[in-house]
Specification:
By secondary structure, the chain is of the alpha/beta class. It is built from nine helices and eleven strands. The strands form two sheets. Strands 2-1-3-10-4-11 form a six-stranded mixed β-sheet, sandwiched between helices. Helix 5 links the parallel strand 6 and strand 7. Helix 5 packs across helix 9. The N and C termini lie far apart (42 Å).
Amino acid sequence: MLRRRPLLAAPLLLAATTTAQGQATAPWPNRPVRFIVMTPPGPGSDQMARALAGHYQMALGQPFVVENRPGAGGTITAQAVASATDLHAIGLVFGGPTTTARALNPGLPYDPATAFSAVTLLTRSPFVLTTHPSFPARNWAEFVAVVRANPGRYRYASIGPGTTTHLAMEEFKHRLGLDIEHVPYRGFAPATLDLLANRVEVMWHSPFTALQHIRAGVLAALVQTGERRIPQLPEMPTLAEAGLADAAFFGWTGIIAPAAFPPAAAERLAVLTRDAMARDPAARGGMEETGAEIVASPPADLAELQRRETARWAAVISRLGLTVTD
């Protein structure tokens, strides 16, 4: 049950731009807005979207209807937003559909660099480098030394080719001269099962999926990728503390809109999001318990993050020659 609370004294009318076809529009929003989410119904991002939709609706005077459109690594949701020529659609996405998707798939029906307007960066979540307890390293320096001393012997899991859990390790392999085999999986669950069974030895893990196994002692954690320590794992050093000051990387969630979206509307949605995140635990979607950082940024911050992520990971994709069929 969403708690409804007016955030502004009266429904807000925002000046609008023209549509992609050049036709004039009424003030935004002037009709129901689709809030398209790349995950299935359930806790986490979907819960966050539904709570935010209630806040937006109360403040802006139009319904915000959540649509769950999972699949294809989030590109289904991204394409639905990109093609919304009436501008009454926004999307909650993870990073890939708006950054690396075109580098992985040149035939993608939209160009992430031009198809979207940024609204807000919702959350950032670091990754934790986890190993099977039998792996002979207990920190980042020992991990690098062990892999270098045993070229080709060890295997690392990812949640799929072209995901951050794959590209990050490939970046470190190139940067540090490591020889470790990539074993891709379809998501964290099957990869974690094989890591627990010691069929692979290493994995960049979501803190949410790794935490229970670390606390139970069935996985070891060596380092995490954020800029500061995770409250749930306060003893876990960052990559910077391990000697790699410029190597931080994250998983993240953000809200995007079509390319011709009114800038004033994006700014107002970002303000409403920040207010909702501060006041309503449901709007945070339980993300803090997973080790995620609640951000709720201005639009420009998300746009800059997308530019940096695109440049960083597209270079790795190009070097590896990756495509969506790999």
